[in-house]
Design a protein that fits this description.
alpha/beta; four-stranded antiparallel beta sheet; binds adenosine-5'-diphosphate; 16 helices; binds magnesium ion; four-stranded parallel beta sheet; about 50% helix
């Protein structure tokens, strides 16, 4: 094993450069006019996406500095779902500007302290949120801009808003099922679960208030691959097979007596499925773990590991319906329970790739809607708030008493870095970023950069243009970006083990 070690300035610069490079990679996707990236994985499968965290996850970079940026974006995804690109772009800019400070001999700890102080100043001087009636589709549309095409935007924003409202912002109760065909306008919300599975019984009609057996295992008979047998006589083998069929026969019978529908995690032996079908018991095999858990949680049905664990007395009936459901030209399994409030968004779109991108974009939109439903406060987007905060921090750096000259320099760098968001949105729309940043410096708090649907940009009141983002999202972006920049600045030693 070789050990690679970098210390002091060399370690710092190496981390900073790697992190800045990550930021540069995703910067061109920021904002409504951001470009998409095409990612090709080891198996040659392609993803076309504009989503920060998705790109970063695929970026196979072994560098620790770059990894920290990916983690920061992941944290943002965990907390807010949206803003994953912004965190990296902003954190990257803080680091890029630190490079100049380090070159001038300013100690990293001084920079870290000044950056943290700047973040506090910014967060303590946030402008007043927009005072307007709750309008979920506007917030959803801001998160979806650049991801859903213009024609689909309103439908997508309304769908997400309705979903978020139905579950009152509790995202665990929303599931998304995508199916190619039709268009976004044909998407809808289904009460209950729709599983991407079909019944093994071709003519099963479904059951109302059924007894449901959930089995975390399989019903596939003996596994001949795992055992080694020596049989002298073919008759012996037949005997074993007969025994197997007998056991399976017993099992089938027991199941048919105990329930109306059985869903199992693994496979089901053909003979078992056939018998159960003849007894009008609905059979679904290879149900994945998360679906299993979801069914259990909405119906109250218990997941058993073995048939023998199921209690003697009958399984209780669930209140609801389990039935086949046809969407487009495909069959699914629908599970509805009276008391449950889980919903499934059935999302339609032309191709697999657009649907995958919708799914990712919906994740962002539902995330911000959940934040919005929580506190109802929003800011105008398009860099309006960050450019105002840049001024606040800059003023503080100039006017606050008791700061050293070095601290002032660092705070100014922090202020400048906040302007990278409107600058990047501008340059992605083909505008001159410096012009935009300068114009924003002389504007009031509601003024940001608005990009219209033809891709034209204008410095204007973005709030009245319907670009709204939750206050919690903006705060978290500032916090996460400052945190990752400071953590990277604090490292002065990289010890990497490579290869065995
Ligand atoms: P992230 O992954 O950080 O959410 P996005 O690509 O979604 O990155 O871009 C988000 C940024 O785009 C936010 O700063 C938001 O205010 C801005 N934005 C959204 N819609 C518009 C618009 N119509 N005009 C200008 N900026 C917009
Ligand atoms: Mg976004």
């Amino acid at each position: 094993m070789t050990e690679e070690r970098k210390t002091g300035r060399e370690a710092q610069m190496s981390n900073i450069r790697a992190a800045v490079q990550v930021a540069e990679t995703v910067r061109s996707t920021l904002g409504p006019a951001g470009m998409d990236k095409m990612l090709v994985d080891e198996r040659g499968e392609t993803i076309v996406t504009n989503d920060g965290i998705t790109i970063l996850r695929e970026l196979s970079t072994g560098h620790p500095g770059a990894q920290m940026m990916v983690q920061a974006s992941q944290t943002q995804d965990d907390v807010c779902k949206d803003g994953t690109t912004s965190v990296v772009v902003l954190g990257g800019q803080m680091l890029a500007l630190s490079e100049g400070l380090l070159m001038r001999g300013i100690h990293p700890q001084t920079i870290v302290r000044a950056f943290n102080k700047s973040a506090t100043v910014a967060l303590n001087n946030l402008p007043l949120p927009i005072s307007a009636a709750m309008n979920l589709p506007v917030v959803a549309a801001t998160a979806l801009r650049g991801k859903a095409s213009e024609v689909a935007l309103d439908d997508a924003a309304n769908l997400c808003s309705e979903a978020a409202q139905r579950v009152n912002g509790d995202l665990d109760r929303i599931r998304v099922l995508t199916q190619a065909g039709e268009s976004m306008a044909d998407s809808y919300i289904h009460d209950g679960l729709v599983l991407n599975k079909t019944f093994a019984n071709p003519n099963f009609l479904g059951k109302e208030n059924p007894r449901v057996l959930l089995l975390d295992g399989g019903l596939d008979g003996f596994n001949y691959e795992d055992v080694q047998m020596q049989v002298q006589d073919p008759a012996q083998l037949n005997q074993i097979r007969e025994q197997e069929m007998q056991i399976l026969g017993n099992v089938s019978h027991t199941i048919s007596e105990m329930c109306d529908i059985v869903l199992v995690r693994d496979g089901i032996h053909e003979a078992v499925a056939k018998y159960l079908d003849s007894q009008d018991v609905g059979v679904v095999s290879r149900v994945n773990q998360s679906d299993m858990d979801a069914i259990s949680s909405i119906t109250g049905a218990v997941i058993y590991h073995r048939i023998t664990e199921v209690p003697e007395d009958e399984l209780p009936r669930i209140e609801g319906k389990v039935e086949p459901k046809r969407i487009g030209d495909l069959d699914y399994v629908s599970v509805e329970a009276k008391e449950s409030d889980t919903i499934t968004m059935i999302v339609r779109g032309a191709t697999r790739q657009t649907l995958d991108e919708y799914e990712r974009a919906f994740d962002d939109a539902l995330g911000v809607l959940s934040l919005y439903l929580n506190d109802g406060n929003v800011y105008p987007g398009g860099g309006a708030v960050l450019s105002k905060l840049a001024m606040v921090v800059r003023n503080h750096a100039t006017n606050q008493q008791g700061l050293s000259a070095r601290e002032r320099m660092c705070m100014e760098a922090y202020a400048d870095s906040l302007e990278i968001i409107p600058a990047a949105i501008a340059s992605n729309a083909g505008m001159d970023p410096l012009d935009v940043v300068m114009e924003l410096r002389s504007c009031g708090p509601d003024i940001g950069l608005y990009i219209d649907f033809s891709g034209e940009g204008e410095v204007t009141n973005t709030s009245s243009k319907g670009v709204w983002e939750p206050v919690a999202l903006v705060k978290q972006i500032i916090k996460s970006a400052t945190e990752v920049a400071c953590s990277i600045l604090r490292i002065d030693d990289i010890i990497a083990r490579r290869g065995e």
